[in-house]
Design goal:
By secondary structure, the chain is mostly helical. It is built from two helices and no strands. It has one domain. The longest helix has 26 residues.
Length: about 70
């Protein structure tokens, strides 16, 4: 029982430090998505627009060395 009482404060501090580290890392990923379906639709729309402009030849980022 004495061992638990001595180890518990250190364990609590380690867990708090790990949680703080994970929360800081999570903040670097950006804001949370509120509307996932809207975000997915926007990503697919951007991809299709870029793909279409590459096929049409109107894209600014056409790689000609691999064509």
């Amino acid at each position: 029982m004495h061992h638990i009482q001595t180890c518990l404060p250190m364990l609590k501090q380690r867990i708090a430090a790990m949680i703080a580290h994970c929360q800081m890392q999570l903040k670097t990923y950006g804001e949370p998505m509120i509307d996932k379906s809207h975000t997915l639709l926007r990503i697919v729309t951007n991809f299709t627009n870029s793909y279409t402009s590459a096929i049409d030849g109107t894209s600014n980022r056409i790689e000609t060395n691999e064509l």
